[in-house]
Every structure is written in C-alpha cells, then in structure tokens.
Amino acid sequence: MQYFVGDQEYFKGIGKIAFEGKGSKNPLAFKYYDAKKMIGGKTMAEHLRFATAYWHSFCADGTDPFGSSTMDFPFRKSDPYANAVAKADAAFEFFTKLGTPYYCFHDVDASPDSEDAVAYEKTFHKIADELLARQKASGVKLLWNTANVFTHPIYMNGAATNPDFNVVARAAVQVKNSLDVNVKLGGQNYVFWGGREGYMSLLNTDMKREQDHLARFLTMARDYGRSIGFKGTFLIEPKPMEPTKHQYDYDAATTIGFIKEYGLDKDFKCNIEANHATLAGHTFDHDLLVSANHGMLGSVDANQGDPINGWDTDEFPTDVYATTMAMLVILRHGGLGSGGLNFDAKRRRNSTDLEDLFIAHIGGMDSFALGLEVAHKIIDEGLFDTFVKNRYASFDAGDGKKFEDGSMDLASLAAIGRTVQIEKRSGKQEYLNNLMNSYLFG
C-alpha cells in the first residue's frame, strides 16, 4: 500500500500508524495489530482483511434525532462534485495512513445524488474514475459497494418491495450503476442491505408479493452483474428492524431461508453485522456460525451495540470476548474468502477531533487482532474442541451413530429408550467461562 496524499493534506500531524506493541501508551499506534505477523501460516492482514466504511467515516457528522452536526470535515466544499473529489482525497489519505487495505461505500456516499437519473449516472461514473485513479495510486482495493435505496424520500415504502412499480424501476437505476462501478473498480463483493425492505403494518401490505418482488429484483441484479463480468459474491446484510418495523432479512437464518427458497444460494451469501445480530436477539458469533454452517458466511461488518440502548448504535468494537468468539467461528470455517472485516462503525457524537477517527479504528483493529491471536491459540490447544467432542461422544459409535446416520427408525429408538439408564452430565459452563478468561487474561 502506497502512502497517498492528494493536492492537500487533510489529516495534518498524523503520519503512518505504526505497530508499537502492547506496552505503548501512544493513542496513535497499534498495540496488537501487527499486519505482517504470522498467525497459523497467514499474516494478520491476510486473516483480518480490514476495510473502512466511507459513510460513517467521511459522511456521518454527529447528527442524530435529537441534535445537529457536531463534526467538521476539512474537505467539505460547497460544490457537490468538488466536495466528492476532496472527500475521495481525504478518504485515501486516511486509508493509507491507517493501513486498511480495503474500503466500502454506498453510491451516494461517494457521489452526489440527483433527482435527475441521467445526471446521477453521469456524475457517479466520473467519480468512479476518480476513485479508480486513487486505488491505482495507493493499492487500496474495493471490498464491496452498494446502492443507498433507503434514504431518499421516494424509498419511504421500500425499494424493490415498494408497492409503486415506478419506485422499483428508479431503484434499479442505482443498483445497475452501482454494479457497473463495482466492475470498473474491481470490487470483490456486492452488498444489498434492505433497510426499507419490510413493513410497518400488515393492514396495507401484501407480504408474499413484496418478498416475490424482492427475489425477482435480486435475481435480475445477479443476472446483470454476471453479464457485465462481476465474478464476486453477492451479499445480503440481515437486520431485524430499524428503519422498518419488520424487515424481511430479520437475521442470518431468515435470510438464508429466503436465499434458498428463491434459488439464489449459488451466488448469494450473508454479510453479518454484529450490532444487527444483537438487535435480533442473538450474539454476533451466533449469526456468524449460522451462516458458516450453511456455507454462506461471506463478509462481516465489524462493530458492536450498546446493551442498554435498543437501537443500532454502530460503535467501534472493543469487546475482546466478542471478537475472540467471532474469530473462533471465522478460523474454524476457513476464513472469510473474498470477504473482510468492514468497520461499519462511527465515532461517538462528542468525539469531534479528527484524530478520534484514527483512534476509533485503531481500537477496533487491535480488538480483532487480539481476538485472532486468542482464537488461534484456543484452536491450536484444542481444549474446548475436545470438551465438545466428548460431550457428544454417545453419537460416535453404536446406537447413537446409527441414529445420527439415519439407519434407525422411531420404534427402534423408542425400544432403546425403554431400557437406558440416564446419568446426569454437567455442561460445565462455569469451568468453560473460566477457561476462556484464562486465555483472555491469563
């Protein structure tokens, strides 16, 4: 990755973020993330495949439902096109100073939106050329991009699931152009997040028809993407609610069921976000494992929520217990392939210094790096795996194996059940919790 600064340096006084080790007290240095360190035959960088989110990092300004902007961006310009170019310069300066090898964006994060579809298309492709030039200059790559078909008022009733065909067609403009730009930029994946693909009330909703329309739209997008040379993975990002009350991609299991029902499973996988999983009442590692077990773990949005707040707070990940559990799933299932760990996270509203954007990412990268090291050690030593294997040992031979293999009928199973002597077997939960703590803090 080449150090990139455009015509103007925006993050002045901040150089390349270096690894200084866990003893360092420098807030602008890595304590655990050493990109070149080898873990199990791969470098940390190869395992973790970090990406920076364009929207939270260079668009989110601290505005929330209760207050206006608190953050100033030095690249902001009054002309929308000039602003987009300056934003791209600032973004690639940030990527290369921080050392994230990938980035992700929505179309209207990077390029100005327009009521005029033709003007939108023309400007988007001009900005894509600017992004491509910066990719070539820096070596930073596009992990994935997507179309924002949820913010504009026309999408208040959904995009692909909208009851008005004209809105569905307008959404297609953005998705088609986003796929065109993806191929131009060499994107490794393409994401769909159905923020408005759901409903508020069944009194005005034909759920079956909307889900059929969503599947039709995704099928058309898949076919178009393949026709223009996109060879990557299509990803759907589950979320249970917010902004709609009931979203059709509620969680990993629901999304996988939808993908399989409509025959999209050869092309689509899941992009799992930690905060979305917890909003659905699951843990982060639960939705990762559900996806992995179905061969549909594609990529990860790395963040965390606040257990006290019941909404999507999109905080940078600092819970090493959660990152360790996540990396256990990812390592055991062979890594993320073409996916990565995208920081779909934003600074807190009162973290207003430009260096806070670096500090937040450094903390998230360190948390996953430490989680990677601990998870690899856990797998290498095998204590948890051995415990789980022994817990299910009754299915490894004899009648238990016959049951598991499907070579036993219910009557035979019941006959055995009449004669068995059942012993109480502890799940040893406290022991396992303590063992995990010994890896984390020992």
UniProtKB/TrEMBL annotation:
Catalytic reactions on record: alpha-D-xylose = alpha-D-xylulofuranose
Binding, Mg(2+) 1: E237, E273, D301, D344
GO molecular function: magnesium ion binding; xylose isomerase activity
Record-linked InterPro entries: Xyl_isomerase-like_sf, Xylose_isom_bac, Xylose_isomerase
Residues binding Mg(2+) 2: E273, H276, D312, D314
GO aspect biological process, one term: D-xylose metabolic process
Cofactor(s) needed by this chain: Mg(2+)
Subcellular location: Cytoplasm
Broad EC category: isomerase
Active site: H106, D109
Domain of life: Bacteria
UniProt keywords, alphabetically: Carbohydrate metabolism, Cytoplasm, Isomerase, Magnesium, Metal-binding, Xylose metabolism
Similarity annotation: Belongs to the xylose isomerase family.
PANTHER family per the UniProt record, alphabetical: PTHR48408, XYLOSE ISOMERASE (PTHR48408:SF1)
Complex formation: Homotetramer.
Name listed for the protein in its UniProt record: Xylose isomerase
Organism from which the protein derives: Sphaerochaeta halotolerans
